Backbone:
């Protein structure tokens, strides 16, 4: 059974930084392309970005609203995906989901809430 | 970037009704379209990919069709557990944009 467990969410002030983690199990993480998707309170789903596998050079892609502020990385030795967020604004307040897939997203974590507020 | 729209934004139906949701891409995306269901308070669940392929374990009352710019999700006979928001998503290339969602509830 695939499990994705996010952590690291919390309250942060505007302009601040936060790093989210996602530990994966039940899948060949080394070969997996991984995504972050977020959902603001009461709003729809927004794709944040993706990282390819090491064999695909760990190439990253980002949505325009986060490009230059967010960085996705991975540690295959720990089966862990990361999302480093900086220059946070209130618009970044959302539940952040870790999710597998190169486009199609069959597996999702339970999400971790990030609240950006003064 | 390609923009995704869905219609209607919400609908109310009765148990047993046939429900149809439309998704439109601002440019052609071949069949690189997925549908997700998000029940209240739950994590999104993949229903359909490649526009019409049913994900394993998804009930056969769900079906998808379309190609290019226009796509449809159909629930052949609505059940109580189908109350949810349904999102389409394009994945022909990045960004993997989601549609705004269609909320389905009961009359």
Residues:
């Amino acid at each position: 059974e695939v499990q994705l467990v996010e952590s690291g969410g919390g309250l942060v002030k505007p302009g601040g930084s936060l790093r989210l983690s996602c530990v994966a199990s039940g899948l060949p993480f080394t070969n997996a392309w991984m995504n972050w998707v977020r959902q603001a309170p009461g709003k729809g789903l927004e794709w944040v970005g993706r990282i390819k596998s090491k064999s695909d050079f760990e190439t990253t892609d980002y949505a325009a609203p986060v490009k230059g502020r967010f960085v996705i990385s991975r540690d295959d030795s720990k089966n862990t995906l990361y999302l480093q967020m900086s220059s946070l604004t209130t618009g970044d307040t959302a539940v952040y989901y870790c999710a597998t897939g190169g486009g199609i997203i069959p597996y999702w974590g339970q999400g971790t809430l990030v609240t950006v507020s003064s | 970037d390609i923009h995704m729209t869905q219609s209607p934004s919400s609908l109310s139906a009765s148990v047993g009704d046939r429900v149809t949701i439309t998704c439109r891409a601002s440019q052609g995306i071949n069949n690189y379209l997925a549908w997700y269901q998000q029940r209240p308070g739950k994590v999104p669940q993949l229903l359909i990919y490649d526009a019409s392929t049913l994900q394993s374990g998804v009930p056969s009352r769900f079906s998808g069709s379309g190609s290019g710019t226009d796509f449809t999700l159909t629930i052949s006979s609505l059940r109580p557990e189908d109350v949810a928001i349904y999102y389409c998503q394009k994945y022909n290339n990045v960004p993997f944009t989601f549609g705004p969602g269609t909320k389905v509830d009961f009359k």
Notes: The radius of gyration of chain A is 13 Å. The mean pLDDT of chain A is 97. The first strand of chain A starts at residue 3 and ends at 7.
